[in-house]
Amino acid sequence: MLAIEHGQGNKSSGNTVKGPTIGGPFTLVDTENRIVTEQNFHGKWVLLYFGYTSSPDVGPEQVQIMAKAVKLLESKYNSEILPVFVTIDPQRDNPSQLRAYLNEFDSRIIGLTGPVSAIRQMAQEYRIYFKKVEEEGDDYLVDSSHNMYLMNPRIEVARCFGVEYNAEELSEAILKAMISTPT
């Protein structure tokens, strides 16, 4: 089954099977405690990643790749893209924690958090898997999918990227998707 990007459902009639819609409205808060909705990103290309600040390995690597890809797109291709990080661990990732974490990678990355219910709803809409995995004591990890989504200026998913990309490959794939996607 093929995933259908948000707003890109099949317009024809017949016995066509549609894939799941990816994306949807959300209301979260940024690292300055300002309310942010999907409408704040309207008119911009957005690279969206779901992770958490205490991730031991894959998460920081993916944020680093995101930051490098955005810098490459800007310097090499003069293309602007807004990097956005949504926490899947809002119990630990408050706005100040997110700000400190993301500033280690690139101060342009917008960090979003919110109530557990709002994070869970957004993750569900974006088909993000995550599950708390208890460790010894009170500590825990969060098992999750590590997808990045390229959102077009209409806030529709233009492309999904997995962990197999390095920064150069990601920036080239994003540029290709930006060129081939009508805005």
From TrEMBL:
Any one GO BP annotation for this protein: mitochondrial respiratory chain complex IV assembly
Chain positions covered by the region annotation Disordered: 1-22
Gene Ontology CC annotations of this record: mitochondrion
InterPro entries xrefs: SCO1/SenC (IPR003782), Thioredoxin-like_sf (IPR036249)
CDD domains in UniProt: SCO
Protein family according to the UniProt entry: Belongs to the SCO1/2 family.
Protein name (database record): Uncharacterized protein
